[in-house]
Amino acid sequence: MQTLRRSRSNFSIKSKFSTHGQSDNWHRQISLEAGDQHPIGPGYVPNTSFPWTTLRQITDSYLAKKRGKITVEDRDACLIALIRNYAAKDIAIAACTHAMSPKAVRDLLTVDLNIEPGDSFGLPSYLQAIIAANHVNEGAVSALEAQRAIELMASSNASAGRYLERLLQILINGVPANFLIHSHIQTLARLACVEFAAQVERLRHQCQWRRAQAATEWLSRFVQRSVESLPENLDSTQILYANFPHWYAWANWNPDVARIGRWELFSPMQRATLTNALALEGPDYISDRHATLREAVEAQGFIASQTRHSVASIVFEVESGFANDVPNMVDRLLRLVDAAVVTSENDDTAILAYFCISQSVTNRRLNCLECLSHLADPSISALVSQAYRARNESWGAQMAAVMRLLPILGIQHSLRTAIGPDISNLVRGTLEEMQRRLLSQIRSGQPSSETETRLQACGSGLLETPWLWPSLDSSLVDLFKDWPTIEDIDCLQSIRSLAKTSSTGNMLEVVTKINDYLVNCLVKRGTINTGTRILVKALIKLWKQATDPDRRLLALSVVQGRVITTNFRCRCLDQLPQLEDGFVFSLRAIIHNHDEAPSPACVDLTTLLATTEASILTCWRPVLNRMLQNQGQKLIDYALANLKAKEWVKFLLDIHKIFGEVKWDPATSAPILNPQLHRWATIIDMMYMHVIDELEADTRCGSTVQCILAGGDGPYGHLEETLERALLLMLHMEAYSKPAMMTLISLLQRDGSNALAIVDALSSLDSATEQGCDICLQVVDFAQNKPSELVEVVLAGYLQAPDSTDADREALRSVAEVFDMRPGSTKDWSEAGLKVVTDYLDAEYAELFAEAQRLEEMRFLLKSIDPQGTSKILESVGIEDGSAVDDALASLPPGLISVVERVDDMRVEMLFPLTHLTQLQRLRFGLGNARSLYLHFVIAHDPAFCLHLDSEMKGKGRAGHATTIHHPWQAISGGEEPDLPICQGQTSPAKYHLSRAIARHLAEGFTSLEAVHVLVTSILKDLGKGCITCARDHGVKIRGPTTCSQAVCRNAFRSASLEVHLCQIRQDPDAVDFLLSMVYSAASSGNLQLLPNCPFNNTATVLQVLNLLPSMSSLQNSDSMAEAIRALNPQVEQLLKWVCTACRGFISSAQGSLLIPSFPAGTHQFLLATHSPEHEAAFSRHLSTWNAFTQTRVLFHGTSLDRLFAITCEGLKVLSGTSLQAHGAASGAGIYCASEPVTSWGYCAGQGQGNWAGSRFSNFRVLLGLENAGSSVSPRGVHVVKDATTLCVRYLFMIPANDNSIPKAGHITPALASVYTSLRSGAL
């Protein structure tokens, strides 16, 4: 029994007769006395231990304590309040309702305590309250009403069906409308009815008849009880009809219990498969009156004239007039269902469903099923099931299933009788589908091997089932008489595959034959001719015997032949397995090459067959004949062009050996089989092969040999007769006439058209003198290479020569006939002819002059190598000789005559002006005040040179007269370029640059003085444009000598002579002193990063070496600066070379107009005219986009002296955020500059540690003047430059450290801008 629900009510009655204390005391007493007990105990029987009397006494005591007299209404209200406020309503009612009026009690149960119909949770508590009210106040609730409440409570724990049965029984027993539980039991009965109806409907759909019968068997009893209890049962039946429409069918349902019990063995899947059959044993949903659905259908009867009858969802098909068979067929079907339970195999249920569920049921299908059931063999059932189910699958699956079933049907006659027609139709349909598919695949070129194999397998299986043949088409049965084996099919497919992939010829014909044969064997007879059938069978036979690829490919080549008869091809195929491997390999290679090179294949096959035995020759001769016919005349042309004479003759003799004396027909036979050709080859082989070999060795006689070997008919009869005369003459010719006769016979045309003329000429030469033969040879050569007019002139001259004999003249005339000329005839010369002769003579004269020039150049070259020896040779042959210098001067153009002076027979001097160079260029290239440059040049095989400035002469005249001894640099091919001082005079970067360029030029060989002059002039014109080492163009104008970016050039310049690097000390000692001061400050910081490419590994060494140096002014005035430096210390030379080359720009002291005014006294100004070529190139690219002003921007930058050397060498860099950042970066990363110099002056640090010992500078700070060609951030006059390539340092102002009188920008910016403009324009 459910625990009674306790709930709190918000209702409280306030009476003048009650107090809260008394009510609370009543609640405590009732709870204490009742405890957990209720009026109805377990088992839904009255609780005998329930304290009915005590509870009433507590209430009476409570009422007795009320003040004054109370009315019935007041007492009812008071007690109703107590009941409402007490949680367990049934206990409160047991304690109070005895003192209440019946009406008040019933109103309380009807209104206050009532619940919603169908509220199963609150229902037990409500029923307890009704029962308790009946016990203490029968006037309010009758005993029958309390009994129905007890019955309703007792029904709550039953199953759905049992619960509905009990509810309906209560309704049958009687529940009047005025009963408190009337609406509740009506609602519960409806809900239970709906639930039970859904439950049994699910069981019906699942055909769970055993469970459905157990759940619904009470309905038949209910029908009996309801009939006996009419009319009181109307409520129950109405509820059933309203909520369970087919309840009466279930009530009348009386299935075969044993059958539905057996059907419980079906799995859910089997039951789902057989649902329509199992439904026959289910309830009658047609009329709701019969015991089963089957009986209901049978009761309806069947129309005799119809052939199809529906029983539930199953269609039974009978012959017209046999409708009475349907009940028996239904019974047979159900017995088959029972049998399927016994075997319990999925295949049994599947075949049963296929025959009787998915299609109409017929006696034949039932017979089949009964036969399978009688056999009781699951494997047979499985095969039948697969065969029938495969109808909806692919044709391959269908035939596979049928082929597995056919052996069984051959044994089981009854089963064959039952399903034979179906299997026959299935076989016929599947075979036809496979045949259609095969035809479609073959015609469209799709792969068909799988279809062929399956079709063969099906046919092989059908060969074992002759009982099936009568039901098949006669055309199909006809195929079985010669059905191919699987081995045959494999062979055919292998043949076809090899033919498709073979690189030997076009095998499409073979593929077609195989496909046609397959169609003839597998689809329809009579589609091929007898020849094809015999040939393919022979090919299959060979395929089984020979497995090597050579024989197989050779067989394919034989099969595709069209000229050879089928019998011959079959003989070849039969012979192939017996042939030797070597012969097969050779024959296979020949056939393989036939398509690409048919003519060589013919020759090779001829050679092969000529050496084989007669039986093989007889077999393969038709193949050769077909090849010869196909090639025709092309074979002869090929053989003549490619075979040696002996090979050609042997080839023809081999053909004659193979074919013998054949009857040759020019219209149909191969040209190579011409008997006349064979006879001529025999004559050549026997008599003239020696002559032919000699002609063949002469490369001019190619067409001659071909004409002789070919023979044949010429324009004047048989050509062989004429050719044989020529061969006889050649066979007996004299030695002196051989050259002329060999030349003449080489003119024989391939077609023999000039054979008679050639033979006549050869005959005449045979009688001519040796001189006449030589003249004829010259005429032939002239006729082959010169115009005919010239030939006739020459020929006429020779014919009129007094020393020519008559035989010689006759030979000349015969030779002229060969060229179709008639020297004895008179001829009027035309202007065109005369012009040809004149032009020829002019060309001859020009050629003579060119040869003379060549000889003169050779003389010049020999003179440069060995003057005396060459002179003796020339004198010995009577040729006048001249000097090398005279020759060179003679070749000068007029414009250079005045600048080149002859010194002696070997030497000259060239003059080059230097007036176009600016002062900065002169300073940096070490040219000083020189106005001219002299090149002293020695003309020889290995020419030599040296360079001198006019300033070095000092009144000594021309350079050549400065001294009687010169020490020039000798330029040797492949030799080194000069890096040491050459000859006398001071070394300078300009001389170093020019010397290397001239040496490179002369290393390729001296050509002329003009070429040397052009080279030097071009370099001086753009001095500084190229690398000082390799002359590669910098791409931007550089005012100082520097190298390109290649490391090899830097290293070469660094290793140059010390004198080259010390030139700047002589020219500008203060600039070098300034550089050394920068190095000293950087080294004093101890940071090697501030000394780019320093040769020393620590700064202490740098300081030590610096202090070894004397002052720059003392070095400038020394007579031998290089010796003075080398005498100090090897490290001193290393240091100076590094300092002078590390800065690839050009720093110099500012002088004259380059000095910027307004700076404090004692200020030293230095101009950095150019930076490295790379930096200047990057800066120039910015200039092309500079549009803000017509001039670049002038800015200033302050820095400490220790940073100055790195800035001078590498330019300013953005070092914000690195270890070299010196100050803050308030406006972001960049180079901080200023428009006002005084702003930057605040960031200029002094020397700090002093200066190197020999310096003239001390106690100064340096301010940088910059040129800017790019954008910058400008907060309050400070410019933050993000891109370092837009800045160039142009001025370095060395200002006394304690002097703060820095000029304003307005006083110096115009002057700086003017200098920047001059630098860009090239004026400086």
Automatic annotation (TrEMBL):
Pfam family, one: PARP
Domain NTF2: 716-843
PROSITE patterns: NTF2_DOMAIN
Positions in coiled-coil regions: none
Superkingdom of the source species: Eukaryota
GO molecular function: NAD+ poly-ADP-ribosyltransferase activity; nucleotidyltransferase activity
Name the record gives this protein: NTF2 domain-containing protein
Family matches, as SUPFAM superfamilies: ADP-ribosylation
Keywords: Glycosyltransferase, NAD, Nucleotidyltransferase, Transferase
InterPro entries reported in the protein's UniProt record: ARTD_PARP (IPR051838), Nuclear_transport_factor_2_euk (IPR018222), Poly(ADP-ribose)pol_cat_dom (IPR012317)
